[in-house]
Amino acid sequence: KGRISVLANKLIQAGNPPSMVVGVSRGGIVPGLLLRNCLSSHYPTGFKVVDPFTEGALKQFAGTRIVLVDDIYDSGATSHFFTELAMLHEVRMLQFFILDKREMAEEERALWYVFPWETAQDEAGGRQQATATLLRSLGEDPLREGLKDTPKRVDKMWDELAAGYGQRPKEILKTTFAAGEYDEMIILKDIEFFSTCEHHMLPFYGKVHFGYLPDKGLVGISKVARLVECFSRRLQIQERM
């Protein structure tokens, strides 16, 4: 909040504050609201939210002064995108970041920063931004017809591929049946699985053979298959599966 107060005081002292504070979804929403609140005690200042990498996101602010707020300057892709839009729509724009990696030491730039206002829902939006950034780094335009919905598709894909992180193996195996007396191993063969390699994040697949010697109870066959899926729907290596 200290950086926000400093910026607000500078804008107030300059006597020409922005008419609108614009928060970049999702990371810029909370700091953007804090900045607007600091300014609104002296000048009437509005607040709106824009989505990153959305064509025409700044068109509504044509001819006005705005402060664009985001949580962090990382690769610069988002900043460059909005700079180009501001020039296109003749928006007088000041950009503000809670953290700016250009000001950090080299060893700090590689760190991953999590802000207090971030939630699991924010992470989904972060995946979409990361996908758009990756596309731009490859020389692609994430707004072209064939790619404009790709970040959302990739986001949904990872909800499925990484579903195992939200499952608890103990919960899957908590229901058991009386074991009786067994002196041989129970074996289930050829349980097919699909997973994602943690080294290169590429898919791999195979079959699991599962065997155990009952002690205090038996587990249903379907539970074993669910257990395999729980671990396969995470970043894995073949040897560990």
TrEMBL record:
<dbReference type="GO" id="GO:0008270">
    <property type="term" value="F:zinc ion binding"/>
</dbReference>
<comment type="pathway">
    <text>Cofactor biosynthesis; 7,8-dihydroneopterin triphosphate biosynthesis; 7,8-dihydroneopterin triphosphate from GTP: step 1/1.</text>
</comment>
<dbReference type="Pfam" id="PF01227">
    <property type="entry name" value="GTP_cyclohydroI"/>
</dbReference>
<dbReference type="GO" id="GO:0046654">
    <property type="term" value="P:tetrahydrofolate biosynthetic process"/>
</dbReference>
<dbReference type="GO" id="GO:0005525">
    <property type="term" value="F:GTP binding"/>
</dbReference>
<dbReference type="InterPro" id="IPR001474">
    <property type="entry name" value="GTP_CycHdrlase_I"/>
</dbReference>
<dbReference type="InterPro" id="IPR043134">
    <property type="entry name" value="GTP-CH-I_N"/>
</dbReference>
<dbReference type="InterPro" id="IPR018234">
    <property type="entry name" value="GTP_CycHdrlase_I_CS"/>
</dbReference>
<feature type="domain" description="GTP cyclohydrolase I">
    <location>
        <begin position="128"/>
        <end position="241"/>
    </location>
</feature>
<dbReference type="InterPro" id="IPR029057">
    <property type="entry name" value="PRTase-like"/>
</dbReference>
<dbReference type="InterPro" id="IPR020602">
    <property type="entry name" value="GTP_CycHdrlase_I_dom"/>
</dbReference>
<dbReference type="GO" id="GO:0005737">
    <property type="term" value="C:cytoplasm"/>
</dbReference>
<keyword id="KW-0378">Hydrolase</keyword>
<dbReference type="GO" id="GO:0003934">
    <property type="term" value="F:GTP cyclohydrolase I activity"/>
</dbReference>
<dbReference type="InterPro" id="IPR000836">
    <property type="entry name" value="PRTase_dom"/>
</dbReference>
<dbReference type="GO" id="GO:0006729">
    <property type="term" value="P:tetrahydrobiopterin biosynthetic process"/>
</dbReference>
<protein>
    <recommendedName>
        <fullName>GTP cyclohydrolase I</fullName>
        <ecNumber>3.5.4.16</ecNumber>
    </recommendedName>
</protein>
<dbReference type="InterPro" id="IPR043133">
    <property type="entry name" value="GTP-CH-I_C/QueF"/>
</dbReference>
